């Protein structure tokens, strides 16, 4: 009894320290693993690329590897118990692409997550693009982990992780706006081998729009669910009380006593308390008791089912079944961390549609030499493309690449490791084509074929139907100074919001412009327009000539109504420079490339 009272006293002290926080920009005194430890359920896994999960932690968060030379760098903290040093990553990765190779365990168990190998349901995974998910925490710029299919991490048989029917808890902070209904965006306990070994051999929290085991589901999700192997469960039976969590940052929590009971909770990681979506019996059919094997998985199913997409910011696993009071205190700690991001949320992955209404398809490519093809449009991850600020077009964690670095007519395109080079750059043209600058040629369907499996190539740009490829996720508008066209006013996207220059931020929504068939450029639901004073702004889309922009051969962007070109006054390059239109002159101040 005395030990229980001591644990309660420590937990109350942790809660008191949390309430006394002077500002969200400072690290909380009591972090999630301090809270769970004080409640008698210590962390056996603590993974985050954004912040410390112990108040006394001052070690490594994650490792990045540079494509240009294969060098690696461990990313740490700005201060003990604080937030990630994103500037160190940016400096190290300048001019090239980086992937996340290790997510370090902050707990004393050292259950580090590394890129997942092949399993019975999926081939070798790739590491996440380290720059694909910029956001903020505590007022500091940080990076999350962006999963876009075939991306996964694992630790085989972790030290102290529950096995057999032992109790455990876990949570992750993920995104409720970057999800799909494919298997499986999980964080938690998985098999020793990368294989499905039967019901009850997994215990992982999942955030998904997949509703299969316990329908009907309320709304369109995503829902916090339990992946218990061979079933994603919202409860042990139909559970329409689970209303889902669709906010940009979601706390998704699962705990399981290993014998009879499990609980699911979800909430907005930025504000408020957790909702209890289920607290009751485990499903019948091999789940009572559980048969846990003690590995840790992130981003895939236990057998490496790797078609899911998602965003991960932090997560922990505990030894023992946490109390509700500890869960509530952890949610308060997460809210105090001050997750934000707004426009720094990831740019949406979307289809690239081509001839015949077919989609550019990665052919589930997990190796070099597999040509990208046309296929019927569907919700698979190999058709979810991101057009990055470096002009890359990526899916499945790899980039659209000219096969063999060739540039001649007929060169096939493939998915290859993202390296940031000229053979992976693609520019959306005003005529709807997708041009590779180093070759000067456009993505092309040979002879205009539209059959499933048609292998795509590059060919001399001609503006004809076989070269109409629309990047439905949009792209950046960059200058020759590596600045981007950006919306001011805290990215509210309101009418007459100023359009300016700003440092390019991979994935920033207010720097991600969608080209319309009418020549418009749209972001945040409005179109690039010219004010009466010749300044660039956002306005309600109206299809008028003042919202029509034509990419010129010299790299300028011409406005049809005024006959003038987008321009940076006096060649200014400072953040916040208000853009305008000016007489077209071909100068460097008018080089605006629509990604």
How would you describe this protein?
The protein has 4 helices and 43 strands. It is mainly beta. It has 3 domains: 2-340, Jelly Rolls (Sandwich); 352-471, Trefoil (Acidic Fibroblast Growth Factor, subunit A) (Trefoil); 477-594, Trefoil (Acidic Fibroblast Growth Factor, subunit A) (Trefoil), CATH 2.80.10.50. A 10-stranded antiparallel β-sheet has the order 3-2-4-5-9-18-11-12-13-14, covered by helices on one side. Strands 1, 8, 10, 15, 16, 17 and 19 form a 7-stranded antiparallel β-sheet that branches. A hairpin with a 6-residue loop joins β16 and β17 (275-281). The longest helix has 18 residues, at 2-19. It starts with a helix and ends with a strand. Residues 1-28 have low confidence and may be disordered.
Search tags:
Trefoil (Acidic Fibroblast Growth Factor, subunit A); 43 strands; mainly beta; 3 domains; 595 residues; seven-stranded antiparallel β-sheet; Jelly Rolls; ten-stranded antiparallel β-sheet; globular; 4 helices
* Radius of gyration using CA atoms only: 25 Å
Which bin fits the share of residues in helices?
under 10%
Given as residue ranges, the uncertain stretches (5+ residues, pLDDT < 50) are 1-28
Largest sheet: 10 strands, antiparallel
Mean pLDDT: 88
The CATH class of the largest domain turns out to be Mainly Beta
Proportion of strand residues: 25-35%
Strand order of the largest sheet: 3-2-4-5-9-18-11-12-13-14
Number of domain modules: 3
């Amino acid at each position: 009894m005395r030990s229980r009272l001591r644990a309660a006293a420590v937990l109350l002290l942790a809660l008191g320290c949390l309430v006394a926080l002077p500002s969200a920009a400072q690290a909380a005194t009591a972090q999630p693993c301090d809270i769970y430890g004080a409640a008698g359920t210590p962390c056996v896994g603590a993974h985050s690329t954004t912040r410390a999960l112990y108040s006394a932690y001052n070690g490594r968060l994650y490792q990045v590897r540079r494509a240009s030379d294969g060098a690696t760098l461990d990313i740490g903290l700005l201060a003990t118990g604080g937030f990630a040093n994103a500037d160190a990553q940016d400096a190290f990765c300048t001019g090239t692409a980086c992937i996340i190779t290790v997510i370090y365990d902050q707990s004393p168990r050292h259950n580090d997550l590394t890129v997942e190998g092949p399993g019975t349901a999926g081939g070798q995974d790739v590491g996440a693009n380290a720059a694909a998910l910029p956001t903020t925490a505590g007022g500091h710029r940080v990076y999350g982990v962006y999963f876009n299919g075939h991306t996964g991490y694992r630790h085989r048989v972790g030290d102290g992780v529950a096995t057999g029917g032992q109790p455990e808890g876990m949570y992750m902070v993920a995104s409720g706006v970057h999800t799909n209904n494919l298997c499986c965006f999980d964080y938690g306990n998985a098999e020793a081998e990368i294989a499905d070994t039967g019901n009850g051999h997994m215990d992982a929290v999942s955030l998904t729009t997949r509703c299969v085991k316990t329908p009907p589901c309320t709304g369109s999700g995503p829902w916090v669910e339990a992946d218990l192997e061979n079933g994603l469960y919202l409860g042990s039976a139909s559970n329409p009380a689970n209303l889902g969590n669709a906010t940009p940052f979601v706390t998704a929590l699962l705990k399981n006593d290993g014998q009879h009971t499990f609980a699911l909770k979800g909430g907005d990681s930025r504000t408020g308390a957790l909702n209890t979506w289920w607290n009751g019996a485990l499903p019948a059919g091999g789940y009572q008791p559980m048969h846990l094997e003690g590995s840790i998985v992130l981003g895939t199913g236990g057998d490496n089912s790797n078609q899911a997409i998602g965003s991960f910011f932090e997560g922990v696993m505990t030894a023992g079944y946490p109390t509700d009071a500890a869960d509530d205190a952890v949610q308060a700690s997460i809210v105090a961390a001050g997750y934000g991001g707004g426009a720094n949320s990831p740019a949406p992955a979307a289809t690239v549609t081509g001839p015949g209404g077919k989609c550019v398809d990665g052919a589930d490519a997990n190796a070099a030499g597999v040509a990208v093809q046309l296929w019927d449009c569907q919700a698979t991850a190999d058709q979810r493309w991101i057009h990055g600020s470096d002009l890359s077009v990526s899916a499945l964690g790899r980039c659209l690449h000219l096969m063999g670095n060739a540039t001649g007519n007929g060169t096939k395109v493939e998915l290859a490791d993202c390296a940031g080079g000229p053979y992976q750059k693609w520019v959306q043209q005003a005529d709807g084509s997708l041009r590779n600058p180093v070759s000067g040629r456009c993505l092309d369907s040979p002879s205009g074929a539209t059959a499933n499996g048609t292998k795509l190539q590059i060919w001399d740009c001609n503006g004809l139907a076989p070269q109409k490829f629309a990047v439905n996720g949009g792209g950046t508008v960059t200058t020759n100074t590596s600045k981007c066209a950006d919306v001011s006013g805290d990215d509210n996207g309101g009418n007459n919001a100023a359009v300016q220059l700003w440092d390019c931020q991979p994935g920033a929504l207010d720097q991600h412009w969608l080209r319309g068939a009418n020549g418009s450029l749209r972001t945040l639901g409005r179109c690039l327009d010219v004010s009466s004073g010749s300044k660039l702004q956002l306005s309600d889309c109206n299809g008028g000539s003042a919202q029509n922009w034509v990419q010129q051969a010299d790299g300028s962007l011409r406005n049809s109504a005024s006959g003038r070109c987008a321009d940076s006054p006096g060649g200014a390059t400072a953040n916040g420079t208000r853009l305008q239109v000016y007489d077209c002159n071909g100068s460097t101040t008018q080089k605006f490339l629509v990604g």
